[in-house]
Amino acid sequence: MAQLRLDKMLVNLGWGSRREIAAMARGGKITVNGEVCRSPDRKVDPQADKVAVGDEEVRYQEHYYLMLNKPAGVVTATQDNFQQTVLSLLPARLQKAGLFPVGRLDKDTEGLLLLTTDGAFSHALTAPRRHVDKVYLAGVRGALAPDAQARFAQGVVLEDGTVCRPALLAPEGAADGLQYVRITLREGRFHQVKRMVRAAGGEVVTLRRLSVGPLTLDPALAPGACRALTEGEVRALKAASGIE
Ligand code: URA
To answer: What number does the ligand 1 atom closest to the CA of 76 have?
Structure first.
């Protein structure tokens, strides 16, 4: 692989700003192949050279791919002056790695949110013409129209006249005064699930995204927790979105 400046590589991987990396190097905190390296401008081969910061080995990757179990109450944004963002839930080092959310979930929506540094990956999963399925579990108040399932299958017409792509609506039982429905969409319009349910006579009270294409939210992730996607998961998502 092409050689890269040590400080550039560590900045790209979220270990700090260029100035912070330089300070760490001067302080003897960075090793390359087991030897202390005090020159932040030293060239390294990110795949062949073993770089460590303190005791932690630096694993090179061109891009980050994470899944987050988004809790309700945080906004899908990298920065916001007034509200907590999904980015603030990531470990401190990853907050500086240039990650951004893939698409958007509403502030009160929970569940599977992907974050990445890979713009092509994000675009492929969110572009309407790629048709990657997104599955949601909605808790609905009010009675849905008797033909709601058929209307979803044909393409719901929203209040403003927008015709949605065909979608699946499947009942998932009732609890605490709400009826639960599983909704599978192939597009991502603003507040789409809420608007489709409203057009069918109900009101979404709770909303959780369960899956994106072949990727299902890891049940081991508590609300607010994230983990890196495995190589297999990234490959499957790329295949589903047609970029590989
Ligand atoms: N549809 C919505 O209405 N909200 C979301 O957050 C996602 C899909």
So the answer is: 6
pLDDT value, residue 127 = 82
> Angle 119-126/231-241 helices, nearest 10 degrees?
50
pTM for this one? 0.86
**CB distance 215 to 134 below 8 Å:** no
106 is catalytic: yes
Domain residue spans of the chain: 4-57, 65-128+215-240, 133-212
Nearest-atom number in ligand 1 for the CA of 188 is: 8
Q: What confidence score (pLDDT) does residue 85 get?
A: 98
Q: 4-57 is classed in which CATH architecture?
A: Roll (3.10)
CATH class held by domain 65-128+215-240: alpha beta
**Is 133-212 the same fold as 65-128+215-240?**
yes
Q: What is the pLDDT of residue 62?
A: 84
Which protein residues touch ligand 1 with a CB less than 6 Å away? 105-106, 109, 191-194, 207
φ/ψ region of 173 (left if φ > 0, alpha if ψ in -120 to 50, else beta) reads: left
> What distance in angstroms lies between residue 189's CA and the mean position of ligand 1's atoms?
8
End-to-end CA distance of the chain: 21
| Ligand 1, pocket-test mutation among 105, 108, 114, 197, most atoms within 8 A of CB | 105
Instruction: Kindly state the DSSP code that residue 130 receives in the 8-state scheme.
Output: G
38 alpha carbon to ligand 1 midpoint, in Å? 49
Mean pLDDT by 10 residues, the chain (244 residues): 88 84 96 96 93 91 94 97 97 90 97 97 86 95 96 96 96 96 93 97 98 97 95 94 84
Fold assignment, 133-212: Alpha-Beta Plaits (3.30.70)
Which residue among 45, 80, 106, 218 is the active-site one? 106
206 phi and psi angles, rounded to 5 deg: -130, 145
